[in-house]
Amino acid sequence: MTTDMVNSPNKGFEEIKHIDENGTEYWSARELFPLLGYSTWQAFDELVNRGARAALNSGQVVENHFSQLTKMVDIGSGSRRAVKDWKLDRYACYLIAQNGDPKIAEIALAQTYFAVQTRRQELFDKLPDAEKRLFIRGEVVDGNKKLFRTAKEAGVSNFGLFNDAGYRGLYGTSASNVEAKKGIKKGELLDRAGATELAANLFRITQTDEKLKKDDIKTENAANRAHFMVGGKVRQTIKDIGGRLPEDLKPETHIKKIKKEMKLLEKEAKKAALPAKKKKSK
Questions:
Q1: Residue 246: is the preceding peptide bond cis (ω within 30°)?
Q2: pTM, rounded to two decimals
Q3: Degrees to nearest 5, angle at CA 277 with 275 and 279
Q4: DSSP letter string over 153-184?
Q5: How buried is 239 (Cβ within 10 angstroms: 0-12 exposed, 13-18 middle, 19+ buried)?
Q6: What does the pLDDT look like over 129-153, one tens digit per residue?
Q7: pLDDT tens-digit series, residues 183-196
Q8: What whole-number distance in Å separates Cα of residue 262 and Cα of residue 132?
Q9: Rg of the Cα trace of the chain?
């Protein structure tokens, strides 16, 4: 992926993402249209409608992806008026980009971006469970680094308490209690977690990072409360969809052992691919 693709419009695409009261990500069409190179709302509104028709033709329930809204905007001198907007999920944004004019540079980049993201998801879906664990564990490590930088800026100094606040929200108890219940060593919770449990933690981490920034949190107590609240929201979502709570998921093989086994497999695969050495003639 090129630097241009990372910086525009795709980096901005993630930056204007919203999370609704149900924890669902969405985008505002009013915020999206200038990012995709459209200068007028009318032209972009037509594009949104083309995307919605594409969803319908694909057998989708359009309202699950495209929700029409009315929002109030300032028009000067303290006056406001109602304007049309759309609440769009990621799939809707994908369809909008795919139905846009590829002659517009931003649309062409967005189409490439979504094609890459779709291919990444296809490849991810085909990965064996062990590789999925390795992938998500790496994302969790990177996400935690980012979260701790944000938390430090928010006034957090005791990262142990901050981290445990998130665990208490997600697991309903402290990390040490969860480890005791699972029969694993102290500090091994994430390294012994399966893909589903890691994914729940990754969502907790990324959404806490977003909340600390969005709410401009600047005290340690407020940051801890936010981390606990986000963890609790993720837990409630798992309950609402009938999933197994993370503390009830069985521990998996330590991630370090998985990494070691994967390296051995790669080494053996490379060795098998090498042509056999010819014996020297006497």
A1: no
A2: 0.57
A3: 150
A4: HTT---HHHHHHHHHHHHHSS-HHHHHHHHT-
A5: exposed
A6: 888 899 999 999 999 999 999 999 9
A7: 999 999 999 999 99
A8: 12
A9: 23
